Amino acid sequence: MREQDGATKAPGRVGDVRRRNLALVLGRIGPEEPATRAEIAAATGLTKASVSSLVAELLETGLVDELGVTRAGERGRPGVGLALDARRGALGAEVNVDYLAVGVVDLHGSLRYHEVAETVNRGRGPNDVVAELSRIVERCVSAADDAGMTLLGGGLAVPALVDPSRGTILNAPNLGWRNADLAPALGGLVPGAPFGVVLSNEADSAALAELWYGRGTSLGSYLYVSGEVGVGGGLVMGSELFSGPGGHAGEVGHIVVEPTGQRCSCGGRGCLETVAGQEAILAAAGITDGGSTTAARMAALQASLDAGDTQAITAVERAAHYLGIAIVSSARVVDVSAVVLGGHFAALAPWIRPALLSSLEAFAPGVIAEEAVAFSELGTTAALRGTAGAALRRALAAPYELLA
Amino acid sequence: MREQDGATKAPGRVGDVRRRNLALVLGRIGPEEPATRAEIAAATGLTKASVSSLVAELLETGLVDELGVTRAGERGRPGVGLALDARRGALGAEVNVDYLAVGVVDLHGSLRYHEVAETVNRGRGPNDVVAELSRIVERCVSAADDAGMTLLGGGLAVPALVDPSRGTILNAPNLGWRNADLAPALGGLVPGAPFGVVLSNEADSAALAELWYGRGTSLGSYLYVSGEVGVGGGLVMGSELFSGPGGHAGEVGHIVVEPTGQRCSCGGRGCLETVAGQEAILAAAGITDGGSTTAARMAALQASLDAGDTQAITAVERAAHYLGIAIVSSARVVDVSAVVLGGHFAALAPWIRPALLSSLEAFAPGVIAEEAVAFSELGTTAALRGTAGAALRRALAAPYELLA
DNA sequence: AAGAATTAGTATGTGTTCTAAACTATATAG
DNA sequence: CTATATAGTTTAGAACACATACTAATTCTT
User: Fold this and answer.
1) Residues of A in contact with B399 (CB under 8 A)
2) Which of A150, A186, B222, B376 has its CA 20 to 30 A from that of B244?
3) CB A21 within 8 A of CB B11
4) Does B173 lie in the same domain as B27?
């Protein structure tokens, strides 16, 4: 993810300066309030001449749009407003255990044309599922096309350990997939996308969605924990996803929270997942109807909680207690002081929150403040927003790719 | 530590290219085996002309030395060997609870002129201790001077949370210091050092020493855990220290390893420190003589272990068991797959190792391999080597600072 | 022993991209 | 209607890497 080897680093060429400055100027052009060339020059330290030249090239890429004169009402010649062009966007898609989700996000951050389909994907083959996904994607892509949008790239998020550079799924335990090569399918999703379609982990993407479009926008550094069938997570620090040397960072599901606890599917013992995963909570709540899907049983849990069922409430509070321990330990290791919770933790927020706060206070007073515990509001669109956003950032970081 | 804000980034100027390439070329010049201009050109992708020009400037800085023709025995004109100049070095110093350590490390990585003084610093004031340290530093600096060495910078490591940019100690619980301003003293340690003298955390510095001069050289990414009066740690990933958004990353001492365990001085419960810190181990081993220093009692523990005392052995194994849990949890969060253990964990290695390995295997089979558990061999010189090394890296990363 | 072949390193001219400073353009103030 | 302020462009100059052609020093071949 990060630069690996100081020794293998490429040499700096004179042209690199321009590439860097193109991205720098583009970074000062927000989605909304128009910036002017003069303002950008003052903010970046570049001369007005350089900014003019750089902006001219950015206009050529189509990422930036001139809005006409800004009425300042002040003395002097008014500047020409510049803003990101909302007609450029990216596709985001997600395959999860019990739904497919697809959408288009534009450079202003708006989600347009999204569609969520509830399907049971566990056990079905990857090709079958991706074919169904492709049909939804086609509808979204042509809707964007009809509206005059240009898609720069896209992303597909899956609840799996992936190799983004090869477009392969290494292991998706909850889908039952191993070593699936999605590269051919990815290429076809957004025809002619200059920034490609990239495979990503669902929790990582959701974590980034919170950073760019959700509860993390004001935080910058936080741990994202998503409760699904498993317990996944992503680590955002300094407004960047940290995925670790091997790409597994933020995997809080297998932190040991109870040394004398149950054995876990990972081979360990007392992992968070064994006490706060969906199956664990459902079992503790006594909701054991094996015939229906996990999603349906989670709905039943909601109903029990609403009805004030003590066993259900105790089960959720127990999960929150251990969740607190895992968060505290994570916070110590990477020094983050905020958390964003998604998946079923967000759905169960009213019951999770108090128990979680008292657990945090008991095990590490003062480390994570009450205001620093946030619950996701993005629902099933989190991961697709994240991968689409990542595609947009790839474009914003390398605008020169769009020039001849 | 890392670049914070994409928006506040400085613009790229043409001269930045040269700065980058100076550091790039310097990075290819190792301490030992001489590199030639032609080899560097091939390795970096720069042209021979550019490399010649860059090397000429590096020679001016004094960091690099020409060794004369390399006898290759092959056809063609032999190249001129280039190597880092071992006459350039940096000072490293450490104030710890029961000793002071000072040394000089040269650009070849050799430790020269080092001195360790056993003194009880707990409770003494910072000024008093630093004055004593300064006398030792003076001896080392003049020894280096006499040998014709030039010191580029230095570092002072303390078992404390520090603000390196201000040169202040925020809190050193085990020394009993709070809000001590060491900036004036630091400035005077290495007169005229172009890269300054920087305050650092002892565990972080020791972690870096392992990376550059110890057990971490072949690892690249690992968790360093140091057992002292407290339990500290440092996180090295991708051959860089990761200190987290607030600078506390790697603080494994307060990971929760036993939810029903004892209260901790941090206000939490069941932290690693409450079961694997020196006092905790001594108490469990029944070595309770309150009159002598902690260091002396740790020596007594060693003696008991050597004598086969079951209570002592059980106490150490229990600590190792919990240490394993903390390592596993850390490994999950940041995705590292190796550990280096220092401080009393290194001293007790023969007793720690087997218990630790079985704990790792029980809680996360396959995550940390047996070969990936290493014990430090740097002893009391670890932290000083680390801070000195950091000063040397500052010079190697910014050689242009040494030019007019 | 002389020349061919091979490799190391230097010199010169060109293109890119920045800065600085002077210039043009367009607004408000009085 | 002129002075002033601000936005943006034009032009000249400097830094730097690249490409190419050159010189230097060594070994191989005959």
Assistant:
1) none
2) B376
3) yes
4) no
Q: What is the residue-wise DSSP string for B309-370?
A: -HHHHHHHHHHHHHHHHHHHHHHHHH----EEEEEHHHHTHHHHHHHHHHHHHHHSTTTS-G
What integer pLDDT is reported at residue A291 of this predicted model? Answer: 67
* Structural domain count of chain A: 3
Query: What's the one-letter identity of residue B236?
Result: V
| Boundary (domain end) residue, out of B84, B103, B136 | B84
| Bases of chain D within 7 A of a CB of the protein | 4-12, 14-21, 24-28
A273/chain B closest Cα distance in angstroms: 13
Nucleotides of C under 7 A from a protein CB: 5-12, 15-22, 25-29
Q: Are residues A94 and A50 in the same domain?
A: no
Buried b (16+ CB within 10 A) or exposed e, A9-29: bebbeeeebbbbbbbbbbbbb
Question: Can you give the distance from the CA of residue B75 to the C1' of nucleotide D30 in angstroms?
Answer: 17
- Domain co-membership, B341 together with B232: yes
Where a domain ends, among A67, A84, A101? A84
Per residue in B16-72, pLDDT tens? 999 999 999 999 998 877 899 999 999 999 999 999 999 999 999 999 999 988 876
Residue A275 and residue A269: Cα distance in Å, rounded? Answer: 11
Angstrom distance, A283 CA to D4 C1':
78
In-domain check, residue A6:
no
Tell me, yes or no, whether A222 and A370 share the same domain.
yes
Residues in chain A: 404
Expressed as residue numbers, the domain containing A77 is: 13-84
Distance in Å, residue A241 CA to nucleotide D17 C1': 34
Contacts of B330 in chain A (CB under 8 A): 329, 333
CB A375 within 8 A of CB A340: yes
**Mean per-residue pLDDT, A386-401:** 98
pLDDT one-digit tens code per residue, B82-127: 999 999 999 999 999 989 999 999 999 999 999 999 999 988 999 9
Amino acid found at A72: A
* B365/B236 same-domain check: yes
| CB-CB contact of B44 with A11 (8 Å) | yes
B259 located within any domain: yes
